[in-house]
Structure formats: structure tokens, C-alpha cells
Predict the 3D structure of the following.
Amino acid sequence: MAPSPSDHDDRASPAPFRLRRWLPLGVLALGLAGFFAFGLDDYLNFETLRDRHAALTALVAENRWAAAFLYLAVYVLAVAFSIPGATVLTLIGGFLFGILLGSVLVVIGATAGAVCVFLAARTALGDVLRRRAGPWLRRLEAGFRENAFSYMLTLRLLPVAPFWLVNLAPAFLGVGLPTYVLTTFIGIIPGTIVYVGIGSGLGATLESGSDPDLGIIFEPHILLPLIGLALLSLLPVVIKAVRRRRGLPPGLAS
């Protein structure tokens, strides 16, 4: 039997095509390596912010919207390159632009950067891993895809898994781009508001010579509502499982 066109394409794909598939992920990896190679990690900390906060405040006062656009671009790149220190950048957003505008900029920047990582990983590795996946990974992918919206929203709401990991994993589990974008955008809003709120009062903290308390998100009065939202996002999964166990079609009442 003659080989199918897809089989032929997989075996005979020219090198330039394979390189193009890996190029986006390679660019992101090089960006992360360059961040450390040029010592830029030395600038993304509270000490540097304490030294430069007056200059940053003056820059925003002179041209607020140009500064906001620059901040947004930096945030997108930081998330896309999976650079450590996004929390500091989030605090800076609150410090420079206030809770409302700072939250908007952070949510848009984090979502756009996460989409870059998702698309790069899916382009380079998603199809390869799915073709070579064993039965366990296929079952995991099928279950995740069936309830992708609820699972993704839960992962975004709970500050448990690293942000970069939640950016990557859905690319290997068949999550669609619209679901990924929507759940990322919605799910990071509560945590973003918390950290941007801390950043909005950062001026007094920096002047006192102390660092902000980043563990505040694990305080019960903040963490418990986040857990409640996460459990609420899983409710459709639970209802679907109960209906299936009772032998009911998904759309019928019990």
C-alpha cells in the first residue's frame, strides 16, 4: 500500500521546514539565556527599584502613556522569555500606574506573553509529543481536553504551579488557543489585583528600607477566596462526572 501524504511529509520534511518549526522556541530560549548572560537579572530586584524609583516616577509623570506602552512591552517579553522576576514587575506596575491601569497592563502583558510561550511550544513539540505519547499521556490529554476550560481556569486561579509551567503544559495536552487565552486572561485577574495593590503602596515601603511582603497571597483572607473560585470553576467537571456515573446525558437534569 502506498504511503499516505502525511506519512511522506513526516519522513521527507526538508530541514528548513523543521528549523522553522523550532525557531520560535529557540528564540525564546535564547532570550532567556541572553537575559542572564548580560546580567540583566541584577536589575530586576527591589534594591534596583529602591535606587531608581524616583527616576521611574518622574518618567511616568512626564509621559504616562508612553511609559505604560513601554512597561507593557517589557512585561510581554519577560513572560514570553520566562524570565524570573515577573512578581517584581507586577509590583512596579502598581507602583507606577496605580491599581486600575497597573492591573490592566499586567493582565494584558501576562496573557500576551503566555500565548507566545504556548504557541512556540505547541509548534515545536506539541505534535511530536502527541504522536509519540503512550496510553497514559493520551488518556490524560483526552481528560484534560474534555474539561479544558475548567482545568485551565483552576490552574490560573490557584497560585500553586509556577506560571511558566502552566504556560507550557497546555501546549502538550491539546488545549485550544481560544480556551487558553480566555482562561489565562480571566484566571490571573484576582492574583494580579492583589500584587498590583501591594505595588501601589510600594513607595512608603521602599522609603522605609524594607521589602514588601509577597507572601500575603497565602494569607487566609486572600487565599481562601481564590480556592473558592478555583473550586467553583471545577463545578462543571463534577456535575459532568456525576451525570456520567448515573448514566444521564450531559444536558439532562437528574
